[in-house]
């Protein structure tokens, strides 16, 4: 883990991964979308509306994955004070927020034709809505503190407390009677989804995952550059003050010497 | 690929709204993230270059001012 502690090394590694991940992302989205919208069959009960699954399930999966990354970053902020951890947490939160919003919106667009309602207050939907607000709260905390390390610690604590919501989301469909269908892919007894619908779903899951890698690395680079800017400019370091004093000293020296010469 | 592709057995409105929304949000997030890392990176580089230029100016001035 501490190999990544050097930001310059991290950025070099990111620059090597980014082109590959971008290429993979485009390829996976192209084949995934083609398969999801054209090749894959309509469901025998749901008709073509089942195609919403190919964006809904990856969005929901990524919503939870991002939260796990954010919580892991929070943990390493609090326990190891890893220098990149709070940058990572701050970088991943907007991605998680976007995916959670998409999971809710696409679910709503699937729920209307299938259940007859845009929204129901059942356990799965409500716990995902809570996830959405956890992301918002996390970002709000980052905005609320002037002191960066205080913000990082407060945000990390929220991220860790909120982890309890993840198993609630996952098992909500088993613990409570809900309208939402139970897990059909990530099950202990294997996937329970028609084989013809598996390839596009796996492709779209992989596409979303590589998209995450690209955006996460960009956001990490942005965050690290912002830290560097802060170190270089916004907050004058003692060394800088010394330089400025040196400057003034030089100018005075020059002025007196010119006067003497004249 | 004709009318049926867009109609989607009557679910076209829901399906295209869902895919369109996903597309818009993912593109917007990508654009914002890319721009931020580009701008921050360039600003950091410029600041660093300005710093080292000033430092070399000092060195040059010192060299000229030191009586040989």
From TrEMBL, chain B:
Keyword tags: Cell inner membrane, Cell membrane, Cytochrome c-type biogenesis, Membrane, Transmembrane, Transmembrane helix, Transport
Q: Name where it's found.
A: Cell inner membrane
* Topology of the protein relative to the lipid bilayer: Single-pass membrane protein
What InterPro entries has UniProt attached to this entry? Haem_export_protD_CcmD (IPR007078)
Task: Provide one Gene Ontology biological process annotation.
Answer: heme transport
Task performed by this protein: Required for the export of heme to the periplasm for the biogenesis of c-type cytochromes.
Which family does the record assign? Belongs to the CcmD/CycX/HelD family.
UniProt-annotated stretches for the region Disordered: 49-68
Compositional bias segments (type: Basic and acidic residues): 57-68
Q: What is this protein called?
A: Heme exporter protein D
Q: Which organism is it from?
A: Iodidimonas nitroreducens
Cellular component terms (Gene Ontology): plasma membrane
The regions listed as transmembrane in this protein's record are: 14-34
